[in-house]
UniProtKB/TrEMBL annotation, chain A:
<dbReference type="InterPro" id="IPR005894">
    <property type="entry name" value="DrrA"/>
</dbReference>
<comment type="similarity">
    <text>Belongs to the ABC transporter superfamily. Drug exporter-1 (DrugE1) (TC 3.A.1.105) family.</text>
</comment>
<dbReference type="InterPro" id="IPR027417">
    <property type="entry name" value="P-loop_NTPase"/>
</dbReference>
<dbReference type="GO" id="GO:0005886">
    <property type="term" value="C:plasma membrane"/>
</dbReference>
<keyword id="KW-1003">Cell membrane</keyword>
<dbReference type="GO" id="GO:0016887">
    <property type="term" value="F:ATP hydrolysis activity"/>
</dbReference>
<feature type="domain" description="ABC transporter">
    <location>
        <begin position="5"/>
        <end position="236"/>
    </location>
</feature>
<keyword id="KW-0067">ATP-binding</keyword>
<dbReference type="InterPro" id="IPR003593">
    <property type="entry name" value="AAA+_ATPase"/>
</dbReference>
<dbReference type="InterPro" id="IPR017871">
    <property type="entry name" value="ABC_transporter-like_CS"/>
</dbReference>
<dbReference type="InterPro" id="IPR003439">
    <property type="entry name" value="ABC_transporter-like_ATP-bd"/>
</dbReference>
<dbReference type="GO" id="GO:1900753">
    <property type="term" value="P:doxorubicin transport"/>
</dbReference>
<keyword id="KW-0472">Membrane</keyword>
<keyword id="KW-0813">Transport</keyword>
<dbReference type="GO" id="GO:0005524">
    <property type="term" value="F:ATP binding"/>
</dbReference>
<protein>
    <submittedName>
        <fullName>ABC transporter related protein</fullName>
    </submittedName>
</protein>
<keyword id="KW-1278">Translocase</keyword>
C-alpha cells in the first residue's frame, strides 16, 4: 500500500499561539483514518491546511501526490469534505444546495440527478427537497450537509465531526454508508470525532493529537494494549489526561477574534 | 418576468460545457437569492426613488430658471446610476455573509479555479444590479422621464451593465479583505457616498471649480453617469466613446484585481 496523505513537520502559528506544532504522519490509500484530540488540539486547523483553506506556517503536505499550497486545483480535485460547522446556503432549497455542489464538482447531469435523489433519501430529506434550508432544524441541516459531501465520490473524504448532534439511527446510517463507500470505491476516509466508539468501530488506524502535537498513532487495539485499557475512550483519556480544554480553546478563539479584528492579515 | 426570461435563457448555456456550468450556477444562485428576497428588491428602490422625487422635483424650478432645462430629465440618469452603484457594491460585499454563514468554504474547496468562482458570482451580482437600474428607469418613466431615443436604449443598457459589473467586482474585492460587516458603515460613508455625490450624477460638471471636475474625472462612476446621460438625454461631458473606453478598462482591471484578492482568501 502507498500513502495518499503525507504530512511532514507541519506547523501553523496564529501570532504567538501555535495551533499545529511540527506534525508528521501519513495516511494509506483506502484507509479509514481517525484523527482524534480534545477541543482546540489543532484538528480543524490541520484539516484546513490539508484542504487548501489555510496556508501552513511551515512544513510539507502531499495530498494524492500534490501540494496544497502550490497545486491547489489538483488537490481540490482529489478530496471532498464535510465541515464541522455549517456551510449551506440558507436561501436555497435542499435540492438546490445539492445541485450547486454537483455542478461545482463537475458531476455529470444524469449521475448527479440520480445521486441527489439517492442521498436525499438516505438522509430522509427527499420529502423536504424543495424547502428552503433556513426552515430546517439543526439536525436536518447536518444531514443535508452530509448528503452533499457524499455527492461527488472523491479519492479522499474529510469528515470533520460529521455526526455531531445526530441521533444514533442517523449516525449508524451515515457510518455504514461511509464504510460501504470506502469498501466499494476505495475512498480514503479521514475523520475526526468526539465519539470514541465510532472511531473504534470505523477506523483502521487512529492518531491522537494534543496541543498541536502528535502523541500517538496506531490501531485502536494497539492503543488499548499500550495504555492497558479496555476501550478507546479510556485509552484516549489515558493519553491526553483529564483536564478539560477550556483555556486552550479560549486562547485560540481569542487569537482568531484578534485576527478577524485586524483583517486577517497573517 | 424578466428574471424568468433570464433564467430560461440560462438553461441553454447549462448544456454548454463544465466551465460555463460553474459560472452559470454561481450566477443563478445570486439571482435566486435576489428574487426570493422581495423586501430587499423593494427596499433598495426606496432610496433612489426619494432622491429622484425630492431632488428632481424640488430643484426643478430653480434649475430651469438658471437656464439648465428640465432637471428631472437631467437627474434621472444619475439616480439610475446610483441605484446600480449601491446594489452592485452591496452584492459584492454580500460575500461577507457567505463567509460568516460558512457557505464560502463550500465554494472555496471546490475543484474550480477561484477566478471562475469570483467571475460567476460577480456576473450574478451585476445582473441583479442591472435589474435594479432598470427598475429605477421604469420608475423614472412613470414619473415623467422620457428617454430621447429608443434606438439608443440598448447602448444605455450596455453602459448600465458595465457599471454594474465594475462595482460588483469592486464590492467583491473589498469583501475579500474583510472578515465581518463592521467596516461596512466606513465603506458606505467614505467610499460609496463620495463616489455617488462626486460623480456629476446630481449636477452638471460644466463650469465647476477645477477640483470638482478633477475629482469627477478620476471617479469611475462619472463615466457611467455620463454614458447614460449621453444615451438617454443627450448631454455628455466626456463623450460617449471615452465613457465606454474608461468603463471597459476599469471593469477589466477591477475584475482582475477582485479575482486576485479573492484567490488569496484564507479561512
Amino acid at each position: 500500500m502507498s500513502s495518499i496523505i503525507d504530512v511532514k513537520n507541519l506547523t501553523r502559528r496564529f501570532g504567538e499561539f501555535t495551533a499545529v506544532d511540527n506534525l508528521s504522519f501519513s495516511v494509506e490509500k483506502g484507509e479509514i483514518f481517525a484523527f482524534l484530540g480534545p477541543n482546540g488540539a489543532g484538528k480543524t486547523t490541520t484539516i484546513k491546511m490539508l484542504t487548501t483553506l489555510l496556508k501552513p506556517t511551515s512544513g510539507e503536505i502531499r495530498l494524492d501526490g500534490h501540494d496544497p499550497i502550490h497545486e491547489q486545483n489538483e488537490v481540490r480535485k482529489s478530496f471532498g469534505i464535510i465541515f464541522q460547522d455549517p456551510s449551506l446556503d440558507d436561501e436555497l432549497t435542499a435540492y438546490e444546495n445539492m445541485e450547486f455542489h454537483g455542478v461545482l464538482y463537475g458531476v455529470e447531469k444524469t449521475v448527479r440527478r440520480a445521486r441527489i435523489e439517492e442521498f436525499l433519501k438516505v438522509v430522509e430529506l427527499w420529502d423536504r427537497k424543495n424547502d428552503l434550508v433556513k426552515h430546517f432544524s439543526g439536525g436536518m441541516k447536518r444531514r443535508l450537509e452530509i448528503a452533499r459531501g457524499l455527492l461527488h465520490h472523491p479519492k479522499i473524504l474529510f469528515l470533520d465531526e460529521p455526526t455531531i448532534g445526530l441521533d444514533p439511527q442517523t449516525r449508524n446510517h451515515i457510518w455504514s454508508y461511509v464504510q460501504a463507500l470506502n469498501k466499494k470505491e476505495g475512498i480514503t476516509v479521514f475523520l475526526t470525532t468526539h465519539y470514541m466508539e465510532e472511531a473504534d468501530r470505523m477506523a483502521d488506524r487512529v492518531a491522537v493529537i494534543d496541543h498541536g502535537k502528535l502523541i500517538a498513532i496506531g490501531t485502536s487495539a494497539e492503543f488499548k494494549e499500550k495504555t492497558k485499557t479496555s476501550t478507546l475512550e479510556d485509552a484516549f483519556i489515558a493519553l491526553t489526561g483529564n483536564t478539560i480544554r477550556a483555556e486552550e480553546v479560549n486562547a485560540q478563539d481569542a487569537m482568531r477574534m484578534h485576527r478577524r479584528a485586524w483583517g486577517g492579515r497573517s | 418576468m424578466l428574471c424568468v426570461c433570464i433564467v430560461e435563457l440560462g438553461v441553454d448555456v447549462h448544456k454548454f460545457y463544465p466551465r460555463m456550468n460553474v459560472i452559470y450556477i454561481l450566477w443563478l444562485r445570486q439571482l435566486k437569492r435576489y428574487t426570493r428576497s422581495k423586501a430587499r428588491m423593494i427596499g433598495s428602490l426606496g432610496q433612489p426613488l426619494l432622491f429622484l422625487l425630492a431632488l428632481g422635483f424640488g430643484f426643478g424650478p430653480i434649475y430651469e430658471q438658471a437656464g439648465g432645462g428640465d432637471y428631472f430629465q437631467f437627474i434621472a440618469p444619475g439616480i439610475i446610476s446610483m441605484g446600480i452603484l449601491f446594489t452592485a457594491v452591496f452584492s459584492g460585499i454580500e460575500m461577507i455573509w457567505d463567509r460568516q454563514f460558512g457557505f464560502l468554504k463550500e465554494t472555496l474547496v471546490a475543484a474550480v479555479s477561484r477566478t471562475q468562482i469570483m467571475f460567476g458570482r460577480t456576473l450574478g451580482g451585476a445582473t441583479v444590479a442591472f435589474i435594479q437600474g432598470l427598475a429605477v428607469l421604469v420608475l423614472a418613466v412613470l414619473f415623467g422621464f422620457r428617454p430621447q431615443s429608443l434606438a439608443l436604449l440598448p447602448v444605455a443598457f450596455a453602459a448600465m451593465f458595465l457599471t454594474a459589473l465594475l462595482f460588483t467586482a469592486f464590492g467583491t474585492a473589498i469583501a475579500s479583505r474583510m472578515e465581518d460587516m463592521q467596516a461596512f458603515p466606513l465603506i458606505m460613508n467614505f467610499v460609496m457616498m463620495p463616489l455617488f455625490f462626486l460623480s456629476g450624477s446630481l449636477f452638471p460638471l460644466q463650469g465647476l471649480p477645477a477640483v470638482m471636475t478633477d475629482i469627477a474625472a478620476i471617479n469611475p462612476l462619472s463615466y457611467g453617469v455620463d454614458a447614460l446621460r449621453a444615451t438617454l438625454v443627450n448631454g455628455s461631458y466626456f463623450g460617449l466613446g471615452i465613457d465606454f473606453l474608461v468603463l471597459s478598462i476599469m471593469t477589466a482591471c477591477m475584475i482582475v484585481l477582485g479575482s486576485r484578492l479573492f484567490s488569496k482568501i484564507q479561512l
